[in-house]
Amino acid sequence: MRACLAAVLLVITAEAVVAGSLEEAKTAYEKGDFRSAEGIYAELSNQGDRIAQLQLGLMYDEGHGFPKQHQQAVRWFSVAASQGDPEAPYYLGRIYQDGRGGPKNDPRARQWYRVAAERGHDRAAVNLGVMYAFGLGGPKNYQAAGQWFLLAADHGDIRAQDNLGVLYQNGEGVRTDYIKAYMWFALAAAASGDSEAVKHRDQIAQLMAPAQIEQAQRLSSEKMYALIRCHIVPTLPCHWW
Questions:
Q1: pTM to 2 decimal places
Q2: C-alpha–C-alpha distance, residues 184 and 180, integer Å
């Protein structure tokens, strides 16, 4: 596997102004008119629009049209997160894990990834699982890592699927189970042809009897069908270990 809370800030409300729309801000951004986009997003953000707050945070974080301003990014991501946005806490986790604009802070990154993952953000769930698996920002916990990987894997995330395969192969947080490991590797490989998953699938196949490989292939087909079916019919249960 590879790995590859700030206090919530209050929005300063401005005097009543007529702000542009999100669509106008998006159009300006796509045309490369970053200053106009920033101005519209800032007005909307001060009026409490969480989408604008997220977009403004991204502009400051990525430095589109002006130097990167990570403290401003943290400010607006925090505000958006306080309003329930699922993306903003993920980006906060990235900032703290990477140490952008300040020292790395793995415990804080872990906290923000958990907020995002609990709101259904798959990339945050994967990153949170990796932090648990490697003991970054807190105690190492393979079982917790597997639970977060499973959440994202059941949504089709190939990194989570491959990571689950690794846990089953190594017996980390779960009983060693080559059949389930092969199944998760095969799912990740089938979804995108991911070279790492293909390599893992082929390596574990060398440790398995033909009957085990056949069973694993059947399980991966059944799991693939179950994933497709549960996403078409949202009321069907998706999760199984």
A1: 0.84
A2: 6
- Look at residue 59 in the predicted model and tell me its pLDDT: 97
CA–CA distance, 221 with 236 (Å, rounded to integer): 18
Nearest to 27 by CA among 37, 41, 12, 17: 37
Per-residue pLDDT tens over the stretch 3-55: 443 333 333 333 333 458 999 999 999 999 999 999 999 999 999 999 999 99
Residue spans of the domains in the chain: they are 149-241
| One-letter-per-residue 3-state SS of 44-110 | HHHCCCHHHHHHHHHHHHHCCCCCCCHHHHHHHHHHHHHCCCCHHHHHHHHHHHHCCCCCCCHHHHH
Closest to 42 (Cα-Cα) out of 64, 26, 19: 19
Question: Where is 4: in which H helix or E strand?
Answer: none
CB 141 within 8 A of CB 157: no
CA nearest to 47, candidates 69, 81, 79: 79
Of the candidates 193, 186, 142, the one whose C-alpha atom is nearest the C-alpha of residue 165 is 186
d(CA 165, CA 211): 19
The tokens describing 7, both together, are 């206090």
Instruction: Report which residue type is found at 194.
Output: D
- DSSP assignment of 5-54 equals -PPPPPP-PPSP-----HHHHHHHHHTT-HHHHHHHHHHHHHTT-HHHHH
Q: Which helix (H) or strand (E) holds 132?
A: helix 122-134
pLDDT in tens, 204-234: 999 999 999 999 999 998 887 566 444 444 4
